[in-house]
Amino acid sequence: MSQTLNVKNPRTGEVDYTIEALDASEVASLAARLRGTQGEWLLRGLKGRGDALLALAASLENHANAIIAALEIDTGRKTIASQEVMGVIGSLRGWTQLAPMLMPKPEWTQGRMKPNFKHQNDYIPYALVGVISPWNFPMTLSFIDAIPALMAGACVMIKPSEVTPRFADAVSKAIEEAGLSDVISFAQGGGATGAALVDNVDCVCFTGSVATGRKVALSAAENLIPANLELGGKDPMIITASADLDKAAELALRASVLATGQACQSIERVYVPSEHYDNFLDKLVSKAEAVKLNYPDISQGHIGPFIFNKQADIVAGQIKDAVTKGARVLTGGEILTHGGGRWLRPTVIADVTHAMNIMVEETFGPVVPVMAYDGIEHAINLANDTSFGLSGAVYAGTIEEAHEIGQHINAGAISLMDGALTGQYFEAGKQSFKNSGLGPSRMGANGFLRFFRQKAYIANTVCPLTIDDFAET
Ligand code: NAD
Questions:
Q1: Coil/strand/helix, residue 394
Q2: Which of 157, 248, 313, 362 has the greatest number of CB atoms lying within 10 Å of its CB?
Q3: Phi, psi (degrees; rounded to nearest 5) at 150
């Protein structure tokens, strides 16, 4: 039976919304409805699907104000709410151009191992792709995998986070207006609905925590379906002795505290040459103190509240652990309650070590822990001393120097001369290292090609062998 779930407003702490969580049988019915139209969707071809997705982009534009308003309540922030909607519209337009260029052309190739054979491939999309998304970028992470899957010819079921579900109702109206309700649909609900989705799709794309990712991977294995997992990170940034320290402090701050630090790809630990440590910290603290909370007016300031109340306690616990073990909080550090929401000013922490949770666990808050290093090898060892491998960053004197150092960092994507670029749409492939995920890249060509199975045609160009050719002589 479906269940009513309460949803809190992050700016007020009040429950002001509810969703009806789909139960397992409702998820199965929705899956059957989407599967029922997939054949027709596939028959439209790349051009027809592209035109339909361009119509969806136009429809999202028509509904943008309502979607942005819902996202603002979901996340307690304004500029990023609008950027999320515009980003999805841009991604729809981008994939409709890119997909035809990436689609392999069916052609016969002559065998090299067996010259009498010739081969051809078909590319058959998974009929139904399931997307499970987290609460930190609700719209972006619901569509980042869905759009290339749709272009490939799959139908898509999206389960948004139960923490930030409001935007989905507004988006559904745009989907309906574009005539795509039987091709793409939301399944609202919490963990149980997500688990049911995995049982009913042919391929799952999950973005979320390592703990839930493991459950999704186990369930996908039981169902023998591929799991694309985009999980947590503890992204390092290395600043070199040749870097412009003022710019380095500016971008370390932005890359750490943007979106209140609630980004998997945000910078979570900064390594600075010991001879520049105090100077860097002075610059960082003065820049951090200039950052404003977007309270009381959501239209003013830089960073919003914690979206998910529980995160404030986790971050407070990490700060307390660091201080107990000898770290110094140079600015910020106190969870504030304003208007019922929970907030944290940008927090700079010095004298941290890898014995502290703040340097090894994921931190979903605007916290910049800074550690000194002696020699670049030391910095690289520290950057790689982690169970994660999502992404990282290097800020140096030149791109070439940053690139050289980036080659030694064990992570799926490296921002050079910037930080957290990996959280934006880009067109090079990347795969997570260690606990940060599993599966092909969601960016670049594989972002599209991973939604196809390859089907081979093997043609014998000469007389087939007979059983006598295998006789035990
Ligand atoms: P979460 O793992 O708690 O939840 C993610 C989604 O999984 C939600 O929709 C939730 O309802 C669903 N879910 C819960 N239990 C499930 C189950 N048993 N089966 C299927 N689905 C289930 O994560 P969160 O707290 O919403 O998001 C924060 C996490 O997401 C952080 O760890 C962050 O690093 C990660 N993240 C990763 C990326 C990336 O690209 N790698 C991007 C954003 C966020």
A1: strand
A2: 157
A3: -65, -45
The response to whether residue 369 sits with its C-beta less than 6 Å from ligand 1 reads no
Mean pLDDT of the region 262-266: 93
pLDDT digits 0-9 by tens, 219-238 = 999 999 999 999 999 999 99
Tens of pLDDT, residues 302-342: 999 999 999 999 999 999 999 999 999 999 999 999 999 99
- Residue positions counted in the chain: 473
Residues contacting residue 96 through CB under 8 Å, at least 6 positions apart: 50, 51, 53, 54, 151
Which pLDDT tens digit goes with each residue over 404-462?
A: 999 999 999 999 999 999 888 888 999 999 999 999 999 999 999 999 999 999 999 99
Among 5, 137, 207, 432, which is best to mutate for testing ligand 1, by the most ligand atoms less than 8 A from CB? 207
What are the CB-based long-range contacts (under 8 Å, 24+) for 197-200? Answer: 197/27, 197/31, 197/130, 197/132, 197/157, 197/159, 198/130, 198/132, 198/223, 198/225, 199/24, 199/27, 199/28, 199/223, 200/27, 200/28, 200/31, 200/128, 200/130, 200/157
Instruction: Return the H-helix or E-strand segment holding 32.
Output: helix 24-43
